[in-house]
Amino acid sequence: MLAALRASESRFRAAFADAGIGMALIDSDDRIIEANPAFAAMIGHDLADLVRTHIHDIIEPEENHRQHYLELVRGERDRLRVEKRLKHRDGRAVWSNVTISLIRDGSGYPLYTMAMVEDVTEQRLLGDRLAYQALHDPLTRLPNRTLFFERLNAAFMPGNGDAPPNPQGAAAAKPGSEEPAEPASAIGATPSAPEASVPGDSRTGLLGTAATTVPATMATAAPGPGPTAGPGSSRPTRRVGLCYVDLDGFAAINETLGHHVGDQLLVAVAARLERGFSRDQESLVARLGGDEFAVLVADSASSEQLTRLASDLIAALEQPFDIAGQQLVVTASVGVVERPVQETTPTDLLKDADATLYWSKADGRARWTLYDPDRGAHQLTRQRLATALRPALERGEFTVEYQPLVGLADGAVHGAEALVRWCHPRYGTLSPDRFIPLAEESGAIVPLGKWVLEESCRQARQWLTEFPDTETFVSVNLAARQIWDSDVVADVAQVLERTGLPPRLLQLEITESAVLGPGGRPVQALQALADMGVRIAIDDFGTGYSNLAYLSRLPVHVLKLDGSFIEGFRDPAPGGRPDNRFRRADADEQIVGAMVQLAHALGLTVTAEGIENASQAERLRLTGCDTAQGWYFAKPGEAERVAAMLRARQAR
User: In 3-state terms, what secondary structure has residue 288?
Assistant: First the structure.
């Protein structure tokens, strides 16, 4: 028996000494009884030096781990697994997976513990590098969208009023460093028995960019106490702010100087933003993609703080950049949102910041814009309308009203302009200016325009059936996108065939800008329509290019004068001593008269819009204007109103 025990002990000692992983026997006083060569080499010590060494000289104690270890020593568990950072003799850290087993005596009482230690430093560093790469932009090394959203969501977590986790702090080393930094926190042990696995630290926070001293010219106001959470409460209401930054004209730099220069510019912009505005726990600078950056202030003080920050951002980026041997000057537009955490969500905050950035661009660029709830509500309404356009057409929510076109010489109804209305179930009846621009932007103008054309031609055919001698025409607006995105000539031909309306009783109105757009397609389409017998009218003449040369080259039949030319006609006829108002009225009459004469010389007729009283109508008649429309004659209304005017004229 004794020989067998000795043989077993000999085999154990041989395995202990020759093991490829570190091993150590530890007594109840936490001192090393014996260690193997692999463990000594792992931490850079001689074997003899390790005997009677306290384990805290090698492993820093952690309270949660210590508690579980004491449970093991007392015999309350048999095994414990932890990830620990060991102290190497030269001062560097050695990351290891440690499995500690309890050795009992013959009676089952705890005798000592045996630790088996596996060096995982390389795996840990590789994991840190991969985690860093997953959370940082490869070009600029700034935090990327993933890390930005982590921080943004953390700012909204309950009980996170002091500070969110700091991914730009010291949770992991940057790729290429010799060792990882101190972990942000430790995760407690799993209390299950007889065995528990206890990770040594959390790797949720990763090193982003080091905090730097902010120049005084770029410093923002220090966060102060916000409003309290409620009456009698001393707990401040947490706030959050976001500056959404976009470089103006960056695409032009890529196109003219090359993408390699654009990339260098992005790196330089990122470095400038990081130096000036990355403030450890207070603010995060991230690249969200392309030339878009964000500065998140997770515990902001007020909207004034964020607008000052936005001003500093713009000023910082306006300074020239030395790129590829040349100086580049760029500007930035910034959308600013700042509000209490309780009144928003991460999704809404980013959505509103994106909308506000769009406003900055639309308002002229190189500026910041603070989110305006009223403007946001208007934008939301526009978006809802744009989304609902096509389904509304399918549900039959649109209707067509008609405004008579009256001859100024005879007072007879010659035709009517078709004006589409949207009978919206929520917003009521909407006029064209509320939704036609949205339809043009979204492309819904093509199916909507076809529907209006067919409804209008069908109605004109009914007028022709009831009043065959009047030949009342219908005038339908034609959007430029209908010419580009559809075969408008074929569409018109099909509608005329289906409705039975003669082409001469259809007038199509198109703006100057659409006629003179790029390419020859509009001209070709208009020529084909004119050859078909359809009348072509230039709408809002005088407000666009006003290129008189095209009037002799295009198949135009009618000029519709914009209502702005009729403004002066609202004043009484000049009499007595003239003043500026009368001089304008006289100038408007001269301009309108000249345009009428020019149109007549080219064989065109002229229609005036926006006539509101008899004086205007008479003065326009004296200029030679042919037809007019406006509230003086009739407001837009149902087709029956036009029919009633035709009947009244017929009865005379």
Answer: strand
